[in-house]
């Protein structure tokens, strides 16, 4: 028997009055997978991720995260995931080290291991030399590294990253993805939303959302091969054009 998926979604729906933001979405995310969720602003990516994180109640369908039901076990989900939003969510008036200490307390990490965990996070994020720097003084890429470090302090098996590199320069984005690969190699499942096509290449599988629906789901290589193109930009543009012609 194959292991249970880290994330299982069946016909998930979210409506805001008469507007359908997420329209019967179905997919699985396997353990240790880097699963990319792509689409333009308003496609339904962030709404889906907020439902899976227990932050927004679905209007219909079914979904399980780490085996927990999104309808009835949202608090258990929150305790067993890491979440990093597209907006920087740490405290600018604290130092790098103080932010890590604060989130160690929030996540109730064992007191006896907090110093070791802090050193590991500082090492992973390359922030050892900046540990006493005020967070507001960090460049954008370094802030994102700190936010990722704080999101994984409690070693969550599943990590949700909602457009984590938005507004960050290409070099910093590439360095950030190196950290993501490190986490995946440790067995953590990474669910990441993005609208950058270069980042899509780093994912094991991709789901393309358009107007609240998944219109493609496969590996980057398979998607390019299906459309006989070397460019995911061209592949997704063609898919969206096909969808709009059908509507």
Key features of this structure:
4-stranded antiparallel β-sheet, 9 helices, 6-stranded mixed β-sheet, 37% helix, 10 strands, 247 residues, alpha/beta
Task: Explain this structure.
- With 247 residues, the protein is an alpha/beta fold.
- Helix content is 37%, strand content 25%.
- It is built from 9 helices and 10 strands.
- The chain has helices at 45-52, 74-79, 96-106, 114-125, 140-151, 170-185, 197-200, 220-226, 232-246, and strands at 7-16, 19-29, 34-38, 60-65, 68-69, 81-84, 158-162, 189-194, 205-210, 213-218.
- The strands form 2 sheets. A 6-stranded mixed beta sheet has the order 6-7-8-3-9-10, sandwiched between helices. Strands 2-1-4-5 form a 4-stranded antiparallel beta sheet.
- A hairpin with a 2-residue loop joins β4 (60-65) and β5 (68-69).
- The longest helix has 16 residues, at 170-185.
- The model has no long low-confidence stretch (mean pLDDT 91).
Strand content: 15-25%
In the predicted model, the low-confidence regions spanning at least 5 consecutive residues are: none
Cα separation of the termini: 40 Å
Kindly report the oligomeric state of this protein.
single chain
Distinct helical segment count = 9
**What strand line-up does the widest sheet have?**
6-7-8-3-9-10
Average the pLDDT over all residues and give the rounded result: 91
Helicity, as a percent range: 25-40%
For the secondary structure, the number of strands is: 10
Please trace the helix and strand order, writing H or E for each element: EEEHEEHEHHHEHEHEEHH
Helix/strand/pairing category = alpha/beta
Globular, elongated, flat, extended or rod-shaped: what is the shape?
globular
Radius of gyration: 18 Å
Please give the largest β-sheet: 6 strands, mixed
């Amino acid at each position: 028997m194959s292991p249970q998926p880290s994330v299982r979604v069946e016909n998930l729906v979210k409506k805001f009055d008469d507007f359908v933001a997420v329209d019967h979405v179905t997919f699985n995310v396997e353990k240790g997978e880097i699963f990319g969720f792509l689409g333009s602003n308003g496609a339904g990516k962030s709404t889906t991720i907020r439902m899976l994180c227990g932050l927004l109640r679905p209007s219909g369908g079914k979904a399980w995260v780490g085996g927990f039901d999104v309808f009835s076990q949202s608090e258990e989900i929150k305790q067993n995931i890491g979440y990093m939003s597209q907006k920087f969510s740490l405290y600018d008036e604290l130092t790098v080290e103080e932010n890590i200490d604060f989130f160690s307390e929030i996540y109730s990490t064992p007191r006896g291991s907090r110093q070791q965990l802090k050193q590991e996070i500082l090492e992973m994020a390359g922030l050892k030399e900046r540990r006493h720097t005020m967070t507001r003084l960090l460049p954008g890429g370094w802030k994102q590294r700190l936010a990722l470090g704080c999101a994984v302090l409690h070693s969550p098996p599943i990590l949700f990253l909602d457009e984590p590199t938005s507004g960050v320069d290409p070099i910093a984005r590439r360095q950030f993805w190196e950290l993501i690969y490190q986490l995946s190699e440790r067995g953590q499942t990474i669910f990441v939303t993005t609208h950058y096509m270069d980042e899509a290449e780093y994912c094991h599988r991709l789901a393309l959302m358009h107007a609240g629906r998944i219109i493609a789901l496969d590996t980057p290589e398979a998607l390019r091969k299906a459309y006989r193109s070397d460019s995911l930009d061209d592949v997704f543009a063609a898919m969206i054009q096909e969808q709009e012609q059908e509507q």
